[in-house]
Amino acid sequence: MSTDYQQAREALGVRLRELRLSAPGGRLTGAEVAGRNGWNKSKVSRLENGRQTPTAEDLRGWAEATGQPEAYEELVARLRGFESHIRSWRRHLASGHKAVQDAHLNAHADASVFRGWESSMIFGILQTPDYARSIFTRYTELQGSPRDTEEAVRSRMKRQEGLYDSSKRFHLILWEAALRALICPPSVLAAQLDRLAGAVGLDTVELGIIPLSAPLKIPPATAFWIYDDRQVIVENWHAELWIDDGASVDTYLRTWRTLRESAVYGIEAQKCISAARQALSFH
Q1: H or E element: which one contains 102?
Q2: Domains (ranges, CATH) in the chain?
Q3: pTM for the full model?
Q4: pLDDT digits (tens, 9 = 90+) for 33-58
Q5: Side by side, which strands form the sheet with 84-88?
Q6: Which of 194, 207, 248, 268 is most buried as measured by Cβ atoms within 10 A of its Cβ?
Q7: C-alpha dist (Å) from residue 86 to 29, 49, 83, 225
Protein backbone atom coordinates (compact mmCIF):
# COMPACT_ATOMS: atom_id res chain seq x y z
CA MET A 1 0.00 0.00 0.00
CA SER A 2 1.31 3.50 -0.74
CA THR A 3 3.18 5.16 2.09
CA ASP A 4 1.16 8.39 2.11
CA TYR A 5 -2.13 6.49 1.74
CA GLN A 6 -1.23 4.38 4.76
CA GLN A 7 -0.12 7.43 6.73
CA ALA A 8 -3.50 9.07 6.09
CA ARG A 9 -5.31 5.94 7.26
CA GLU A 10 -3.16 5.74 10.38
CA ALA A 11 -3.80 9.42 11.12
CA LEU A 12 -7.53 8.76 10.94
CA GLY A 13 -7.04 5.85 13.35
CA VAL A 14 -5.26 8.15 15.81
CA ARG A 15 -8.21 10.55 15.65
CA LEU A 16 -10.64 7.71 16.32
CA ARG A 17 -8.62 6.70 19.38
CA GLU A 18 -8.67 10.30 20.61
CA LEU A 19 -12.45 10.36 20.39
CA ARG A 20 -12.72 7.08 22.29
CA LEU A 21 -10.45 8.30 25.09
CA SER A 22 -12.15 11.70 25.34
CA ALA A 23 -15.76 10.49 25.44
CA PRO A 24 -17.93 12.92 27.48
CA GLY A 25 -18.93 10.19 29.93
CA GLY A 26 -15.32 9.09 30.43
CA ARG A 27 -12.87 7.15 28.33
CA LEU A 28 -14.26 4.04 26.67
CA THR A 29 -12.58 0.72 26.04
CA GLY A 30 -12.36 -0.71 22.56
CA ALA A 31 -14.74 -3.46 23.64
CA GLU A 32 -17.33 -0.85 24.68
CA VAL A 33 -17.16 0.94 21.32
CA ALA A 34 -17.45 -2.41 19.55
CA GLY A 35 -20.38 -3.49 21.70
CA ARG A 36 -22.33 -0.29 21.04
CA ASN A 37 -21.94 -0.86 17.29
CA GLY A 38 -22.41 -4.64 17.22
CA TRP A 39 -18.84 -5.16 15.96
CA ASN A 40 -16.21 -7.72 16.77
CA LYS A 41 -13.80 -5.97 19.14
CA SER A 42 -10.89 -6.69 16.81
CA LYS A 43 -12.43 -4.24 14.35
CA VAL A 44 -11.80 -1.38 16.76
CA SER A 45 -8.13 -2.31 16.92
CA ARG A 46 -7.85 -2.56 13.13
CA LEU A 47 -9.47 0.85 12.65
CA GLU A 48 -7.38 2.58 15.31
CA ASN A 49 -4.13 1.11 14.01
CA GLY A 50 -4.80 1.94 10.36
CA ARG A 51 -5.14 -1.68 9.25
CA GLN A 52 -8.69 -1.28 7.93
CA THR A 53 -10.34 1.55 6.04
CA PRO A 54 -13.62 2.52 7.74
CA THR A 55 -16.82 3.13 5.84
CA ALA A 56 -18.83 6.30 6.34
CA GLU A 57 -21.28 4.26 8.42
CA ASP A 58 -18.42 2.98 10.59
CA LEU A 59 -17.45 6.58 11.29
CA ARG A 60 -21.01 7.57 12.11
CA GLY A 61 -21.26 4.64 14.51
CA TRP A 62 -17.95 5.59 16.13
CA ALA A 63 -18.95 9.23 16.61
CA GLU A 64 -22.28 8.26 18.16
CA ALA A 65 -20.82 5.48 20.32
CA THR A 66 -18.30 7.91 21.81
CA GLY A 67 -21.02 10.50 22.48
CA GLN A 68 -19.62 12.96 19.96
CA PRO A 69 -21.95 12.82 16.94
CA GLU A 70 -20.73 16.25 15.84
CA ALA A 71 -17.36 14.67 14.99
CA TYR A 72 -18.89 12.66 12.15
CA GLU A 73 -18.50 15.39 9.51
CA GLU A 74 -14.84 15.83 10.37
CA LEU A 75 -14.22 12.09 10.22
CA VAL A 76 -15.99 11.55 6.92
CA ALA A 77 -14.12 14.51 5.41
CA ARG A 78 -10.85 12.81 6.36
CA LEU A 79 -12.09 9.59 4.79
CA ARG A 80 -13.02 11.27 1.53
CA GLY A 81 -9.57 12.81 1.45
CA PHE A 82 -7.91 9.46 0.85
CA GLU A 83 -10.61 7.16 -0.55
CA SER A 84 -9.30 8.07 -3.99
CA HIS A 85 -5.70 8.71 -3.10
CA ILE A 86 -3.61 10.31 -5.83
CA ARG A 87 0.14 9.82 -5.87
CA SER A 88 1.75 12.02 -8.47
CA TRP A 89 4.52 10.36 -10.44
CA ARG A 90 6.71 13.39 -9.88
CA ARG A 91 6.64 12.80 -6.13
CA HIS A 92 6.36 9.03 -6.17
CA LEU A 93 9.26 8.51 -8.57
CA ALA A 94 11.56 10.91 -6.74
CA SER A 95 13.74 7.98 -5.67
CA GLY A 96 13.21 5.86 -8.79
CA HIS A 97 10.98 3.02 -9.96
CA LYS A 98 12.04 0.40 -7.42
CA ALA A 99 10.02 2.04 -4.63
CA VAL A 100 6.89 1.89 -6.78
CA GLN A 101 7.50 -1.76 -7.61
CA ASP A 102 8.09 -2.58 -3.93
CA ALA A 103 4.75 -0.98 -3.03
CA HIS A 104 2.99 -3.19 -5.57
CA LEU A 105 4.95 -6.19 -4.31
CA ASN A 106 3.61 -5.57 -0.80
CA ALA A 107 0.05 -5.13 -2.06
CA HIS A 108 0.30 -8.38 -4.04
CA ALA A 109 1.53 -10.23 -0.98
CA ASP A 110 -1.58 -9.25 0.97
CA ALA A 111 -4.12 -10.22 -1.72
CA SER A 112 -5.22 -13.52 -3.21
CA VAL A 113 -7.61 -12.69 -6.08
CA PHE A 114 -6.52 -10.27 -8.78
CA ARG A 115 -8.48 -8.87 -11.72
CA GLY A 116 -6.60 -6.86 -14.27
CA TRP A 117 -7.24 -4.96 -17.48
CA GLU A 118 -4.48 -3.71 -19.77
CA SER A 119 -4.87 -2.17 -23.21
CA SER A 120 -1.39 -1.01 -24.17
CA MET A 121 1.31 -3.34 -22.81
CA ILE A 122 1.81 -6.78 -21.27
CA PHE A 123 0.95 -7.02 -17.57
CA GLY A 124 3.96 -6.52 -15.31
CA ILE A 125 3.18 -9.81 -13.58
CA LEU A 126 3.79 -11.59 -16.94
CA GLN A 127 6.69 -9.53 -18.32
CA THR A 128 10.10 -10.88 -19.23
CA PRO A 129 13.10 -9.03 -17.74
CA ASP A 130 14.05 -7.53 -21.12
CA TYR A 131 10.51 -6.32 -21.80
CA ALA A 132 10.25 -4.84 -18.29
CA ARG A 133 13.65 -3.18 -18.80
CA SER A 134 12.35 -1.48 -21.95
CA ILE A 135 9.21 -0.26 -20.15
CA PHE A 136 11.12 1.18 -17.19
CA THR A 137 13.67 2.85 -19.47
CA ARG A 138 10.95 4.60 -21.49
CA TYR A 139 9.07 5.77 -18.38
CA THR A 140 12.28 7.00 -16.77
CA GLU A 141 12.91 9.12 -19.84
CA LEU A 142 9.35 10.45 -19.83
CA GLN A 143 9.22 11.33 -16.14
CA GLY A 144 12.86 12.41 -15.78
CA SER A 145 13.15 10.14 -12.74
CA PRO A 146 16.30 8.52 -11.28
CA ARG A 147 17.52 5.60 -13.36
CA ASP A 148 17.27 2.48 -11.18
CA THR A 149 16.14 0.17 -13.95
CA GLU A 150 17.87 -3.01 -12.82
CA GLU A 151 16.59 -2.70 -9.24
CA ALA A 152 13.07 -2.09 -10.56
CA VAL A 153 13.28 -5.11 -12.86
CA ARG A 154 14.37 -7.34 -9.97
CA SER A 155 11.45 -6.15 -7.84
CA ARG A 156 9.00 -6.80 -10.70
CA MET A 157 10.40 -10.31 -11.22
CA LYS A 158 10.07 -10.95 -7.46
CA ARG A 159 6.35 -10.17 -7.72
CA GLN A 160 5.98 -12.92 -10.33
CA GLU A 161 6.56 -15.55 -7.66
CA GLY A 162 2.87 -15.10 -6.90
CA LEU A 163 2.04 -16.84 -10.18
CA TYR A 164 3.24 -20.09 -8.61
CA ASP A 165 1.39 -19.63 -5.32
CA SER A 166 -1.59 -22.00 -5.35
CA SER A 167 -3.52 -19.70 -2.98
CA LYS A 168 -3.60 -16.87 -5.56
CA ARG A 169 -5.68 -16.42 -8.71
CA PHE A 170 -5.07 -13.95 -11.54
CA HIS A 171 -7.98 -13.10 -13.85
CA LEU A 172 -6.41 -10.98 -16.57
CA ILE A 173 -7.73 -9.35 -19.73
CA LEU A 174 -5.53 -7.86 -22.48
CA TRP A 175 -6.51 -5.93 -25.56
CA GLU A 176 -4.87 -7.42 -28.65
CA ALA A 177 -3.17 -4.07 -29.32
CA ALA A 178 -0.95 -4.74 -26.29
CA LEU A 179 0.43 -7.82 -28.08
CA ARG A 180 1.61 -5.71 -31.01
CA ALA A 181 2.86 -2.49 -29.38
CA LEU A 182 6.54 -2.12 -30.23
CA ILE A 183 7.58 -0.42 -27.01
CA CYS A 184 10.67 -2.64 -27.21
CA PRO A 185 12.82 -4.20 -29.99
CA PRO A 186 10.97 -6.84 -32.06
CA SER A 187 13.19 -9.63 -30.73
CA VAL A 188 12.27 -8.67 -27.14
CA LEU A 189 8.58 -8.59 -28.01
CA ALA A 190 8.88 -12.02 -29.65
CA ALA A 191 10.32 -13.51 -26.46
CA GLN A 192 7.64 -11.72 -24.46
CA LEU A 193 4.87 -13.23 -26.57
CA ASP A 194 6.40 -16.68 -26.12
CA ARG A 195 6.36 -16.09 -22.38
CA LEU A 196 2.75 -14.93 -22.54
CA ALA A 197 1.69 -18.04 -24.45
CA GLY A 198 3.21 -20.16 -21.69
CA ALA A 199 1.26 -18.29 -19.03
CA VAL A 200 -2.04 -19.44 -20.55
CA GLY A 201 -1.29 -22.90 -19.18
CA LEU A 202 -0.71 -21.86 -15.57
CA ASP A 203 -3.46 -23.04 -13.21
CA THR A 204 -3.33 -19.75 -11.29
CA VAL A 205 -3.87 -17.61 -14.39
CA GLU A 206 -7.00 -17.01 -16.47
CA LEU A 207 -5.85 -14.93 -19.43
CA GLY A 208 -8.37 -13.43 -21.79
CA ILE A 209 -7.61 -11.42 -24.90
CA ILE A 210 -9.98 -9.03 -26.61
CA PRO A 211 -9.34 -9.26 -30.37
CA LEU A 212 -9.10 -6.02 -32.31
CA SER A 213 -12.07 -7.23 -34.34
CA ALA A 214 -14.26 -7.94 -31.29
CA PRO A 215 -17.38 -5.83 -30.70
CA LEU A 216 -17.01 -3.72 -27.54
CA LYS A 217 -19.69 -2.46 -25.16
CA ILE A 218 -17.34 0.19 -23.74
CA PRO A 219 -14.08 1.77 -24.98
CA PRO A 220 -10.87 -0.07 -24.02
CA ALA A 221 -9.63 2.77 -21.81
CA THR A 222 -7.32 3.08 -18.80
CA ALA A 223 -5.59 0.03 -17.38
CA PHE A 224 -6.29 -1.03 -13.80
CA TRP A 225 -5.85 -3.77 -11.20
CA ILE A 226 -8.47 -4.91 -8.67
CA TYR A 227 -7.18 -6.61 -5.50
CA ASP A 228 -9.60 -8.96 -3.71
CA ASP A 229 -12.53 -6.95 -5.12
CA ARG A 230 -11.84 -4.29 -2.48
CA GLN A 231 -9.08 -2.06 -3.82
CA VAL A 232 -8.27 -0.68 -7.27
CA ILE A 233 -4.99 0.68 -8.59
CA VAL A 234 -5.20 2.87 -11.69
CA GLU A 235 -2.23 4.36 -13.54
CA ASN A 236 -2.58 7.62 -15.42
CA TRP A 237 0.12 9.70 -17.09
CA HIS A 238 0.39 12.10 -14.16
CA ALA A 239 -0.35 9.88 -11.18
CA GLU A 240 -1.27 6.52 -9.71
CA LEU A 241 -4.63 6.22 -7.94
CA TRP A 242 -5.25 3.81 -5.04
CA ILE A 243 -9.02 3.52 -4.60
CA ASP A 244 -10.97 1.55 -2.02
CA ASP A 245 -14.32 3.27 -1.50
CA GLY A 246 -17.05 0.74 -2.24
CA ALA A 247 -18.91 2.63 -4.95
CA SER A 248 -15.77 3.26 -7.01
CA VAL A 249 -14.55 -0.32 -6.63
CA ASP A 250 -17.96 -1.52 -7.84
CA THR A 251 -17.61 0.70 -10.91
CA TYR A 252 -14.28 -0.90 -11.81
CA LEU A 253 -15.68 -4.39 -11.19
CA ARG A 254 -18.57 -3.65 -13.58
CA THR A 255 -16.09 -2.28 -16.10
CA TRP A 256 -13.90 -5.38 -15.86
CA ARG A 257 -16.86 -7.73 -16.23
CA THR A 258 -18.16 -5.77 -19.22
CA LEU A 259 -14.76 -5.96 -20.93
CA ARG A 260 -14.57 -9.67 -20.15
CA GLU A 261 -17.66 -10.28 -22.29
CA SER A 262 -15.59 -9.40 -25.37
CA ALA A 263 -12.57 -11.55 -24.46
CA VAL A 264 -11.55 -14.94 -25.83
CA TYR A 265 -9.78 -17.61 -23.81
CA GLY A 266 -7.82 -20.82 -24.21
CA ILE A 267 -7.13 -21.84 -27.79
CA GLU A 268 -8.66 -18.63 -29.18
CA ALA A 269 -6.42 -16.53 -26.94
CA GLN A 270 -3.43 -18.56 -28.09
CA LYS A 271 -4.37 -17.82 -31.70
CA CYS A 272 -4.26 -14.07 -30.99
CA ILE A 273 -0.83 -14.41 -29.43
CA SER A 274 0.44 -16.56 -32.32
CA ALA A 275 -0.86 -14.09 -34.89
CA ALA A 276 0.95 -11.22 -33.18
CA ARG A 277 4.11 -13.33 -32.96
CA GLN A 278 3.98 -14.20 -36.66
CA ALA A 279 3.40 -10.57 -37.62
CA LEU A 280 6.73 -9.48 -36.16
CA SER A 281 9.48 -8.68 -38.63
CA PHE A 282 13.10 -8.67 -37.53
CA HIS A 283 15.52 -6.10 -38.88
Answers
A1: helix 97-110
A2: 3-83 (1.10.260.40), 93-279 (3.30.870.10)
A3: 0.71
A4: 999 999 998 999 999 999 888 888 99
A5: 84-88, 239-243, 231-235, 224-227, 113-118, 169-175, 205-210
A6: 207
A7: 34, 22, 9, 15
